[in-house]
Amino acid sequence: MIRAVVIDVDDTLCLTEAACFELENEVLACIGREPMSRDVHLSTWGQPLLEAMTLRSPGIDLEAFAAAYPAVLRRYVADGRLDVVAQENLQALDALAAAGRSLMLLTSRTEAEVEHLLAPDHALTGRLAAVYHAGNMRYSKPDARAFDELLAATGLDPRHCLYVGDSPGDAHAANGAGLRFIACMQSGVRRRADFADHHVDAFIDTFPQMVEAVARLENTRS
Q1: Helix 62-78 to helix 17-30 angle, to the nearest 10 degrees?
Q2: I want to staple 180 with a disulfide (CB 3.0 to 4.6 A). Which of 76, 108, 162, 185 is the partner?
Q3: Which domains does the chain have, with CATH numbers?
């Protein structure tokens, strides 16, 4: 049985690349830096934010960026421009839970970047068993050890877990940790060919297709 469904945040649970591109350029403007190009943002999408920013804005003062970032992030969230979880995605989470799956998030975001998702009044509250992020993991994707804390805390066999994400790095981490992997293609940022070097158990075009995909994979195993 697939006992746990572990979910990426960016461009999986919610579509974020375009909004993050605008947000990060606004932060760059706040600290007197030139804007990055969309091509550069896309080519580094999926990397931890501060690591990616050294490539998106070479020579950047990361401390200044990190200091200016939270206020802009909070405004984007408050304005409904970032991290909007669609109702149909929440319904998919409920369907997975109703089928007996434990639901968790695992992301390379920092604790500050997920803080609003953990708020008591957030729609995800009560739907998730745990949230793993850069603040409570020793390693980040694409390192397979990103799943170490989750597997240790839950005692789950990785063969009973599934990860859904949008990037080859997500696939690499899941493959290395022994989890099954579903690639969510909804953002349009990736192509199936991008996953050619990784094992993908299923591709889905939209997040709600997760429900049928997980059931189908479980039936295939049995």
Answers
A1: 130
A2: 162
A3: 4-15+83-221 (3.40.50.1000), 17-78 (1.10.150)
